[in-house]
């Protein structure tokens, strides 16, 4: 049995996927980075709003709400970014190639078919004779 975090993984599964332990460590790191981002973000935003509250007074509940919502968004973004890197690592360990994350090339412009002269078009684009 191979330990990955608190769970035990069968040896045959660990032998079939040699990068499993690296992937699990990467995922754990990604989740911890997201948690740290939330804690540090909420604390720093709360402190910043306390300083700004002298010039712009508003209730404590809004101070907490803004801090928590903004740090949640930041934490989600960091966790998503790091998890995407872990997924790329897993694909590389399993297939040996790095996935291509570049945007697809722009589609070619399709020219409109020419309508012979002497015909009109309806408002739906149909040709009339």
Structural features, described:
By secondary structure, the chain is mostly helical. The chain has helices at residues 11-16, 20-52, 60-95, and strands spanning 2-4, 7-9, 120-121, 127-128. The strands form two sheets. A two-stranded antiparallel sheet has the order 1-2. A hairpin with a 2-residue loop joins strand 1 (2-4) and strand 2 (7-9). It is flat, with a radius of gyration of 27 Å. 5% of the residues are buried.
Number of helices: 3
Broad structural category: mainly alpha
Overall form: flat
| Mean residue pLDDT | 83
Helix content: 55-70%
CA-CA gap between termini: 78 Å
Q: Give the quaternary arrangement of the chains.
A: single chain
Largest sheet: 2 strands, antiparallel
Low-pLDDT residue spans: none
Order of helices and strands: EEHHHEE
Number of beta strands:
4
Strand arrangement within the widest β-sheet reads: 1-2
DSSP strand content: 5-15%
Q: Output the radius of gyration.
A: 27 Å
Brief sketch in words of this structure:
Helix content is 58%, strand content 8%. By secondary structure, it is mainly α.
Question: Descriptors for this entry?
Answer:
129 residues, mainly alpha, two-stranded antiparallel sheet, 3 helices, 58% helix, 8% strand
Topology of this structure?
Blueprint: E1 2-4, E2 7-9, H1 11-16, H2 20-52, H3 60-95, E3 120-121, E4 127-128
Antiparallel strand pairs: 1-2, 3-4
Helix pairs in contact: 2-3
């Amino acid at each position: 049995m191979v330990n990955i975090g608190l769970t035990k993984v069968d040896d045959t599964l660990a032998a079939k996927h040699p990068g499993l332990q690296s992937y699990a460590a990467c995922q754990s790191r990604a989740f911890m980075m997201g948690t740290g981002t939330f804690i540090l973000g909420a604390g720093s935003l709360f402190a910043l709003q306390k300083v700004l509250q002298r010039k712009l007074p508003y209730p404590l509940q809004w101070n907490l709400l803004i801090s928590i919502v903004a740090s949640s968004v930041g934490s989600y973004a960091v966790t998503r970014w790091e998890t995407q890197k872990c997924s790329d690592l897993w694909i590389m360990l399993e297939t040996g190639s790095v996935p291509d994350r570049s945007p697809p090339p722009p589609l070619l412009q399709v020219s409109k078919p020419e309508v012979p002269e002497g015909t009109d078009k309806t408002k739906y684009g149909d040709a009339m004779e």
